[in-house]
Amino acid sequence: MSSADVFALVSPVNTEVVTSPVRFNFQNTYVRLPERFYSRVNPTPVAAPGLVKVNEDLARSLGLDPTELSSPEGVAILAGSRVADGSEPLAIAYAGHQFGHFVAQLGDGRANLLGEVMGLDGVRYDLQLKGSGPTPFSRNGDGRASLGSVLREYIVSEAMAALGVPTTRALAAVTTGESIYRETMLPGAVLTRVAASHLRVGTFQYFAARNDTQGVRILADYAIARHYPEAASAKRPYLALLEGVISRHAQLVAQWVLLGFVHGVMNTDNTSISGETIDYGPCAFMEAFDPDMVFSSIDRQGRYAYSNQPRAALWNLTRLAETLLPILDENPDTSLASAKEALSTFDPQFEMARLAGLRRKLGLVTEREGDLPLAEQLLASMAANDADFTLTFRRLSDVAGGSADDTVRTLFADPRAYDSWAAAWRSRLAEEPISAQERAAIMRRANPAFIPRNHRVEAVIEAAVERQDFQPFEEMLDVVSHPYEDRPELERYTTPARPEECVRQTFCGT
Ligand code: AMP
Ligand code: MG
Questions:
Q1: Residue of 504 and 129 predicted with greater confidence
Q2: Considering the entire predicted model, what is its pTM?
Q3: Is the shortest distance between the CB of 188 and ligand 1 below 6 Å?
Q4: Which ligand is nearest to the CA of 206?
Q5: Which of left, alpha, beta for 487 (phi over 0: left; psi -120 to 50: alpha)?
Q6: What SS3 class is residue 429?
């Protein structure tokens, strides 16, 4: 069955009488793929579903009614205690390289794909419950998620969306009324995640590892239909698919590094085919700039350190290319040569996207040879002087608009390091055709004031877990949802952790 057939099989659910008061209008395609692609399994009902948050704007953009979702019936569905009309819950099969080691079967061990809905933008989206109970892929896990990890993913994924980075989104968070055991007892929760799809590099690896070339082909057709429709009419559609994924990840990782974001677990099972950031675990935004920054407690070798991220992405894309070799071309030599050539475009695409982003961050609208060295000098100086990544660039935007240098230079351990760089920057700005005001406006759109700073996220989690106080969560969500606005009354969210507040590590604590 080709992917076109799969999409043709979908009949709109809404033509029938709707009995549930919560209308989703599911139009499912993944469940129409061969049975070996997934396991049909319902979420496990929980003791006491409790609403934390429904993302009202996102709900409306998916044609969903936030009031219905927040009703007792809606919350029961979001907790996995009820199955909505039209939902055909399943756990997706996938494999993956975890920290370089291949595991032939991972799969959704604590997630259920509820189904797919059409957004008002015409795009098909997956609705997935994460933390919704065991599945055939759970291995020894309990299938659950902790409230802390759910709130972290909610905040950081919504922050990324507001920052303009392709990402899965958070539609809702609910508590389960059950405790789960990690290192201690923790409250359980379920996140409703929205994704362009949950296809991963690991999904391709699942079939490749079984020498199931037909499975790889069906999956590739599905990925093309859903994410890279233009590849369908290319001379070599599967090569065009590979090139598309490479291109989107080059752009994606460039956006991460331009924001000081460290994903933390760039395993192939956490690498999306759509090019979205997915599976927020021990991720974090840097404060003081450090190219070697690692937050994850399990990443002891620094495999996924800040500046290793492009290399890790290319490694993952190379694993994707390997799975596609049997279908890229009839001639294995041609397949290999094409895959290598496609992969060789990653670095230049990443570097180009990064340089374009650095120019925006520095307020440069024209291109000069020396722009990259100028930006690298600033970054090196920030690293040597423990300058806060986000604050340096944001305040530089104000300096471009006429503020005093002091607001930036005091961020550097040795402010003179900034002075010498600023002189070079100013002489470069003198060659630019735009006004200081225009430049400041461009820079403010490239340099956020608000990121989800780690100690703030930890404080949000602590208030929720220890005191059932969700007010800090609400406030933080509001803050990171408008990252490029100046909001003087919220200045405390812009400043780095004091030494005693500093969170150097995030735990999988999932
Ligand atoms: P993650 O680290 O969340 O990306 O998950 C890696 C793999 O472990 C995936 O196959 C997950 O489904 C599985 N997994 C993680 N946590 C649990 C859990 N509590 N119960 C069952 N499976 C889990
Ligand atoms: Mg994962």
A1: 129
A2: 0.95
A3: no
A4: 1
A5: beta
A6: helix
